[in-house]
Every structure is written in structure tokens, then in C-alpha cells.
């Protein structure tokens, strides 16, 4: 699994979800209805979910990088070109 590409995809998803939330908030502000308020509540969850995915992916990426750096520094014969 390519963690960098996963992180980039999660960041893209976050940007997309925040843009959708902004559009929903704008629409609800112009026409405040019960349905609009419900849509706004649902749209506000998407950036939280995508933020969680991004944080998890970046955490895995950082941990994997740290483990690889430790293995290389200990001279365990890791071939980083392989």
C-alpha cells in the first residue's frame, strides 16, 4: 500500500467535503428549512470523517518511516533500493 498516495487521497477527500459543507451552509443560510438544517448536519460529518482518515494515514506513514529509519540505522541490511 502506498501510504503517501493514501494520504493525498484523504487530503483531497477532506477538501472536497469541506467545499460541500460550505455550499450546504450557504444554501441553508439563504433558505433555512428543516430539510436544509438536516442536510447541513449531515454535511458537517463528512469533513470530520475525512480528517480522521487523513490523520490515521499520516500516523501510519510516520510510524512506518520511523521504523524504516531505525532499521537502516541499526544496519539490519535493509536495501532501500529494492
How would you characterize the overall build of this protein?
The chain is built from two helices and no strands. By secondary structure, it is mainly alpha-helical. It has a domain at 1-30. Helix 1 (3-30) packs antiparallel against helix 2. The longest helix is centred in the middle third of the chain and has 40 residues, at 34-73.
β content, as a range?
under 5%
> What separation lies between the terminal Cα atoms?
15 Å
| Mean pLDDT metric | 75
**Main sheet?**
none
The share of residues in helices is over 70%
Number of helices: 2
Radius of gyration: 20 Å
The tally of beta strands, per DSSP, is: 0
- Which regions have little confidence, pLDDT < 50, spanning 5+ residues? none
Any idea what the shape is?
A: rod-shaped
* N to C succession of SSEs: HH
Helix/strand structural class: mainly alpha
Summarize the topology:
Layout: H1 3-30, H2 34-73
Short description:
The protein has a domain at 1-30. It is built from two helices and no strands.
What features would you highlight for this structure?
single chain, 82 residues
